[in-house]
Amino acid sequence: MTVHGPGLGRYYEDFTVGDVYRHPLGRTISEADNTWFTLLTVNTNQNHFNAHFAAGAPVGRIIVNSGLTVAIVLGLSVIDVSQNASMNLGWEEIRLTHPVFVGDTLYAESIVTETRESRSRPYAGIVTCRTRGLNQDGDEVLSWRRSVMVYKRDAPHDKGFFPQARNGPMTL
């Protein structure tokens, strides 16, 4: 097993079953993040935005919307797992294992569980990872298995997209 440090994107050829990626960024969740996401997704469960109501629930305080938790952990994993992906193929076995609260900082890590060449797209392969999110105390807050279609290094699709400046190159 190899533990990889921070980097920006990997191609299909870079993934090896058993390798662990400790994604380089952490993200602290604010009250505004939780309220905004809850309103944006029209989630009317008051445990996410009504402190008085949430105080009477078993957890006893506002709990972060689980959709936001999933989205943040997914985002944290992109830099290593799907920066060079053409598409997500699916998530399975999503488990929410510990509550997340405003002020918690989330981190993520992924282990590669499977790789295979795409049968229909010769320029890509399929990478499957188990990803978990951890809070600042090291508690696992969620996990899932995700499969993504990742470009091979010589795929043309993710190259040459930066526009040429009409007034020429930058100069000193």
UniProtKB/TrEMBL annotation:
The gene is ripB. This is (R)-specific enoyl-CoA hydratase RipB/Ich. InterPro entries: HotDog_dom_sf, MC_hydratase, MCH/BMMD. Transmembrane segments: none annotated. It comes from Planomonospora alba. It comes from the Bacteria.
